[in-house]
């Protein structure tokens, strides 16, 4: 998945995009990739994350940024939680499904033509998973190709997808629609039982097969692929046109713009986490006083030693507290 999403080097010598043979780097700006564990600042809101992404990756006009953010919040059903903190294990925030939709929205800022999602339903309950899939289906209906990996889709989610690819031991054992899967499994001698999810059936079958049976099962599909799928790919490539200027990489924002956006985000996060902020100042003050008292006790005649020790401590606001026991000795060594 990272290779298809162009997150890792692309080894293929011949790749096509919308039927045209292209260099992967030329279409990077039109392909979005959402990781399974999408890291987002816990003290930011979905609206702020979308706004930051739009400023750094897309529009310059403030009105255009605001409009695009509003449209994405509505399209991905994030209006209710737009101004709620993302949250983390220590900070209460939005739900898991809302986090998934927020991560998708962040990547949609660049208006990609294709989006890859790695396990978008992991850790979600049935309703949250269904909501995410409905949003992905709406994206596909509006012209954005969606490809995502799943391990155990429910029957409702399975029927939502237009085409399905099943992999086993790195080999393709099926590619087609959900309806065609039932007929193909019957032809392969492994029919889907009545009232059983076809996705569960084929995944269970490839798990219990021996390596030899799995090899034959993959070869049987390869024969179908060579006779029907590959000719379609060649036909599309033959009819493809050269990509236009719309596929050119997006220009990076200036250093000043990036710095201003990140400083603003960090300032907001710091002010929102006031408990941690006050605790850091308090710990610095207490430990600084402890160092002063320690130095004054050992060297009472040196009037400047405590001043040096305090200055030394104040320059280390993010000191590793696991090694704090070494600090008094270090402070004395510096002040002597």
Automatic annotation (TrEMBL):
Membrane topology classification: Multi-pass membrane protein
Compartment(s) where it occurs, according to its Swiss-Prot or TrEMBL record: Membrane
GO cellular component: membrane
Domain ABC transporter stretches: 26-121
Keyword Transferase: no
Gene3D superfamilies: P-loop containing nucleotide triphosphate hydrolases
Full protein name: ATP-dependent transporter ycf16
Source organism of the structure: Polarella glacialis (Dinoflagellate)
């Amino acid at each position: 998945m990272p290779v298809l999403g162009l997150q890792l080097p692309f080894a293929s010598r011949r790749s096509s995009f919308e039927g045209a043979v292209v260099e992967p780097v030329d279409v990077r700006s039109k392909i979005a990739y959402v990781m399974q564990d999408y890291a987002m600042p816990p003290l930011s809101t979905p609206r702020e994350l979308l706004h930051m992404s739009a400023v750094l990756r897309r529009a310059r006009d403030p009105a255009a940024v605001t409009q695009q953010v509003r449209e994405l919040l509505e399209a991905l059903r994030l209006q209710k939680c737009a101004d709620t903190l993302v949250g983390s294990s220590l900070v209460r925030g939005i739900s898991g499904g809302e986090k998934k939709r927020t991560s998708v929205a962040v990547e949609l800022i660049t208006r990609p033509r294709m989006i890859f999602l790695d396990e978008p339903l992991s850790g979600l309950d049935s309703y949250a998973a269904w909501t995410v899939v409905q949003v992905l289906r709406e994206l596909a209906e509006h012209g954005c190709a969606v490809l995502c990996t799943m391990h155990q889709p429910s029957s409702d989610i399975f029927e939502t997808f237009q085409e399905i690819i099943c992999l086993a031991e790195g080999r393709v054992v099926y590619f087609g629609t959900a309806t065609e899967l039932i007929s193909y499994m019957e032809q392969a001698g492994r029919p889907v039982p009545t009232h059983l999810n076809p996705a569960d059936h084929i995944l269970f079958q490839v798990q219990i097969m021996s390596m030899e049976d799995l090899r034959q099962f993959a070869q049987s599909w390869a024969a179908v692929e060579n006779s029907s799928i590959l000719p379609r790919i060649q036909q599309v490539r033959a009819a493809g046109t050269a990509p236009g200027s719309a596929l050119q990489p997006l220009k990076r924002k200036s250093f000043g713009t990036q710095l201003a956006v990140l400083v603003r985000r960090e300032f907001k996060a710091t002010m929102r986490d006031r408990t941690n902020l006050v605790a850091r100042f308090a710990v610095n003050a207490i430990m600084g006083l402890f160092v002063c008292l320690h130095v004054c006790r050992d060297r009472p005649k040196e009037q400047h030693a405590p001043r040096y020790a305090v200055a030394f401590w104040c320059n280390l606001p993010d000191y590793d507290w696991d090694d704090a026991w070494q600090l008094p000795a270090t402070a004395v060594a510096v002040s002597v």
